[in-house]
Amino acid sequence: MRQSVTTTKRFLSSVGFALVLLTLSGIFAACGSNAGSTGSTTGTASTPVQTSPTAVKGYGTAQGCPSDLVVSVAPSTANLVIKQSSANTAFTARVGDIVEVRLPFGHRWTGPTNTQGNLTMQQPAGYAWKADSVCVWRFAAKSAGTTSLNFSTQALCKKGQMCPMYIAVIPFTIVIK
Predict the structure, then answer these.
(1) What's the farthest any 2 CA atoms get from each other in the chain?
(2) What is the pTM of this model?
(3) What residue spans of 58-124 are helical by DSSP H?
(4) Three-state DSSP class for 28?
(5) Which of 67, 62, 94, 69 is nearest to 80 (CA)?
(6) Cα 27 vs. chain centroid, distance in angstroms?
(7) Which of 45, 100, 138, 159 has the fewest CB atoms within 10 Å distance of its CB?
(8) d(CA 176, CA 138)
(9) For residue 159, what are the contacts with CB-CB under 8 A and spacing of at least 6?
């Protein structure tokens, strides 16, 4: 009898601890979100991806993105999504398509800062997308032709620690028809 009371107390204690952890994780998950935002998204080249990205001081750059802008409302779905693993690959898009380049957190990324050839850059460029842990650049295909997008990466190092010295160019070719 005494053993079942002890077992029951342990079980209730474990359940209580789990509920506290669940509550705390929910609170921390809400930190930095902007659930009340009504930022608009569009797929056109003349307007930004989202009208109200949030600047989170030190977040984007700490992850390797070129800016601290964080977009928390998903923009319209891109017609063509390009990832680092597809470097040195030619992609085909149509005039009017949205081309999105997604590069993973954990490397210091640099990329185009303005319109490239037949692609019009959408702003913000190089923003952090927390949901997928990537830095994102979006472009609208404005006319037929071939354009190269060149990104570069290097080690993302913490101050005071040894760091590998390298720079790698990550090229993508977009053929717009």
Answers:
(1) 81
(2) 0.69
(3) 59-63
(4) helix
(5) 94
(6) 22
(7) 159
(8) 15
(9) none
Tokens linked to 8 = 């029951």
Phi-psi region of 7 (alpha: psi -120 to 50; beta: other; left: phi over 0): alpha
Q: Tokens 């993105």 belong to which residue?
A: 65
Question: Average pLDDT in the 76-95 region?
Answer: 95
- Could you read off the pLDDT of 94-147 as tens digits, one per residue? 999 999 999 999 999 999 999 989 999 999 999 999 999 999 999 999 999 999
Residue 92 sits at the vertex; the CA angle it makes with 86 and 96, to the nearest 5 degrees, is: 120
User: What would the 3-class secondary structure string for the chain be?
Assistant: CHHHHHHHHHHHHHHHHHHHHHHHHHHHHHCCCCCCCCCCECCCCCCCCECCCEECCCHHHHHCCCCCEECCCCCCCCCEEEEHHHCCEEEEECCCCEEEEEEECCEEEECCCCCECCEEEEEEEEEEEHHHCEEEEEEEECCCEEEEEEEEEEECCCCCCCCCCCEEEEEEEEEEC
Residue 70 in contact with residue 54, Cβ under 8 Å? yes
How many residues would you count in the chain?
177
Backbone φ and ψ of 110, nearest 5°: -130, 150
Q: Give Cα separations from 143 to 31, 49, 69, 93, 119 (angstroms).
A: 41, 20, 29, 10, 8
